[in-house]
């Protein structure tokens, strides 16, 4: 009798179905390469030197997917001055979205650009404000690069 019970017990242990694992974990990852580009639609902006009001300059499109955002730096060969005939000049500022900086020879950063503008969703229009004149206002072209 003991052998029959033992045999029946052994049969139940070995006949128990194996249960498969019902779930597992799979790790999925990807990489997005960093990209930051700037595209100015026009490299030349013409302004009215008689007006101190902000005037539209070039249209600029920024594409940057950096989580830290982007920094746009403005530099000037003449230190923020439009220089004309006989060395006369006009000070000026460059800006965007109502915030302006005076360009420097070494470069100065514009205020932070909103994230929506950094993905090329809409072009950013640069603005230029002409300031005080230094010297006589001679006829001619006043420029800076």
Can you describe this structure?
- This protein is an alpha+beta fold and 145 residues long.
- The chain has a domain of 101 residues.
- It has two helices and eight strands; from the N terminus they run αβββββββαβ.
- Strands 1, 2, 4, 5, 6 and 8 form a six-stranded antiparallel sheet that branches. It has a two-stranded antiparallel sheet with strand order 3-7.
- A hairpin with a 2-residue loop joins strand 5 and strand 6.
- The longest helix is centred in the N-terminal third of the chain and has 14 residues.
- It is rod-shaped.
- The model has no long low-confidence stretch (mean pLDDT 80).
Which key features would you list for this structure?
two-stranded antiparallel ribbon, rod-shaped, 8 strands, 2 helices, 6-stranded antiparallel β-sheet, 145 residues, single chain, alpha+beta, 30% strand
Strand composition percent: 25-35%
What would the average pLDDT be, to the nearest integer?
Answer: 80
Number of helices: 2
Task: Report the uncertain regions.
Answer: none
Global morphology: rod-shaped
Q: What's the β-strand tally?
A: 8
Structural class by SSE content = alpha+beta
Main beta sheet strand tally, sense and closure? 6 strands, antiparallel
The rounded distance between the terminal residues' Cα atoms is 106 Å
Helix proportion range? 10-25%
Query: Could you state the order of secondary-structure elements as H and E?
Result: HEEEEEEEHE
Radius of gyration: 34 Å
């Amino acid at each position: 009798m003991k052998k029959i019970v033992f045999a029946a017990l052994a049969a139940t242990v070995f006949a128990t179905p194996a249960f498969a694992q019902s779930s597992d974990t799979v790790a999925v990852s990807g990489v997005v390469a960093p990209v930051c580009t700037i595209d100015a639609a026009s490299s030349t902006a013409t302004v009215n030197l008689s007006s101190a009001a902000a005037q539209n300059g070039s249209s600029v499109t920024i594409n940057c997917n950096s989580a830290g955002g982007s920094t746009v730096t403005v530099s000037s060969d003449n230190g923020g001055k439009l220089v004309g005939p006989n060395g006369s000049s006009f000070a000026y500022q460059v800006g965007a979205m109502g915030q302006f900086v005076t360009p420097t020879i070494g470069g100065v950063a514009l205020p932070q650009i909103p994230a929506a503008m950094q993905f090329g969703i809409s072009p950013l229009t640069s603005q230029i404000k002409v300031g005080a004149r230094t010297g006589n206002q001679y006829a001619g072209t006043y420029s800076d690069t």
